[in-house]
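To the team - adenosine-5'-triphosphate complex, inputs and output below.
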Amino acid sequence: PSDETLLEVNNIEVIYNHVILVLKGVSLSVPKGGITALLGGNGAGKTTTLKAISNLLKSERGEVTKGTIHYRGERVQDLLTSDLVKKGVVQVMEGRHCFEHLTVEENLLTGAYTRGVSRGEIDADLNMVYDYFPRLKERRKSQAGYTSGGEQQMVAIGRALMSRPETILLDEPSMGLAPQLVEQIFGIVKSLNEQQGYTFLLAEQNTNVALRFAHYGYILESGRVVMDGPAKDLRENPDVKEFYLGMS
Ligand code: ATP
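Output:
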């Protein structure tokens, strides 16, 4: 990761339905070229943090009531999600959300929709996605609804890549996947980061895997960051080992 900070979340509070305080002052920063992990158990506030960044809370009756969110120094919290995509920030939602009736390739192409680029450039991007996810090339004519959970996760990441992002917010990539597939998906994320320079902020309950692949981690508990540090320090931390890595 470089010294340049892309995303800066400063002391944000999020309230659902005007009364339920879910984030109680969360701050984090995401350096360019890094893989930053947002860790914590079920309900800690990981998804809420990602949705606050990409301005997806409104449909859930949630709002950021305090604090600021900046991307490349610019305040972004009042931008439409689609404008944020144009600035290079794209979110891969938890649960993958493929268009089930479209083919794998059609799903990927929907990711390029907001861009005013030529078919040639889109084809080049498709080939890049297929290089990283050879499985998707094999399955490109299959209806997405009939592909496996792992393949759908690949489609969701591939679709995000088609918007030519700089930063990818990845929500719970391991969810519902067998351990071997989780390794595979994280391995691809790491290659995308190292070879193509994509910046990742990923929310993950699977602390063990996330801390092996990330550079830096933040641990959330009940809407607060309780610990943060370089991934290798967190892996060695006795509290993290006891409470999150299932060993002491
Ligand atoms: P998960 O792994 O389950 O997604 P998480 O760390 O991502 O966990 P969030 O989904 O951000 O956690 O949820 C944080 C808290 O906010 C939980 O207590 C949850 O019940 C609550 N919450 C989430 N969405 C809403 C909503 N639309 N309305 C009210 N409360 C909500």
